[in-house]
Amino acid sequence: VTALQPANLTNNSSFRGPLQIAWDSTSIGLLKECPRKYFLSIVHGVAPRSESVHLTFGILYHASLEAYDRAKALGASHDAATIEAVRYALVHSWDQRLKKPWISDDKYKNRETLVRSVAWYLDQFATDPMETIILANGKPAVELSFRIESGYYTQDGQPLLLCGHLDRLGRFNDQIWINDRKTTKSQINQDFFEKFSPDNQFSTYAFAGKITYGDQITGLIVDAAQIAVGFTRFQRGVVERTEAFLEEWHAELGYWLGQAESFAARGFWPANDKSCGNYGGCPFRSICSKNPSMRQAWMKGAFTQRMWDPLKNRGDF
Ligand code: SF4
Hints:
Elements: E1 15-16, E2 19-20, E3 22-23, H1 25-33, H2 35-43, E4 46-48, H3 53-73, H4 78-92, E5 94-95, E6 100-101, H5 111-124, E7 131-132, E8 142-153, E9 159-172, E10 175-184, H6 190-194, H7 200-213, E11 217-227, E12 232-239, H8 243-266, H9 285-288, H10 292-302, E13 303-305
Parallel strand pairs: 3-9, 10-11
Antiparallel strand pairs: 1-2, 4-13, 5-6, 7-9, 8-9, 9-10, 11-12
Helix pairs in contact: 1-2, 1-7, 3-4, 3-5, 4-5
């Protein structure tokens, strides 16, 4: 893997040379999972040629519900805001260039289940007691981009940043919560919510929320959607993060960021071959299974390049 050609990082504001200086939960999670996977995916932007159906579905689902939140916070009725959300889902799951709908070969995650899930979510939470926070600038607190100092520095004193995006901040029972939406094919039960403790993404969000809003942030509320062929079922759950829990997570973050600098300095990103089968199988298995001398040529043919820049804003914090 060290024989790879350097990626074009000049347009990626989260990097300085081969070292990432702005870290989001995706980058941190990949580094923890397998340093080589992080290197291929984030430093070199190696990506499968076809975009994952789960990624496409997740982006459209979140963005459609965001369209609802924005319209509602600006004074639209529930029905009018729902029409906005469903319209968003329909328009953005239509390929304007090819003049045909998004074709998914996944029987659970496709255009039909997307539109159904958006409409049914909004029906289920039509009288949602959690209200979207309105920020000081008058905008609704949805898809908030955050960028804070991590408290850690490179060897030569450059501050390392923590950044990312929160789905929504909501007020519920006079407390402020980070509201995150998840989709799954699995049944939603207590086990589903328990898998978020510990969880790198939610700890990143809770840490950033606490740094930015202090004790006003009570925790995370997860709206989970079980996407089945014939139905979508929703359940809301609470994910807690105590002060001590977050302190421990932050201390360990320092270790991982130090590891990343050391790997980058040596140009050596070790494989964690105990992670290859996780999450349905690593997409880079076909690379890692080749002899090192064959990998570069294989990657060029079978993969494309998509650079990940966590500093790209989606909203205002
Ligand atoms: S296939 Fe295994 S070793 Fe290779 S990048 Fe993926 S997780 Fe790491």
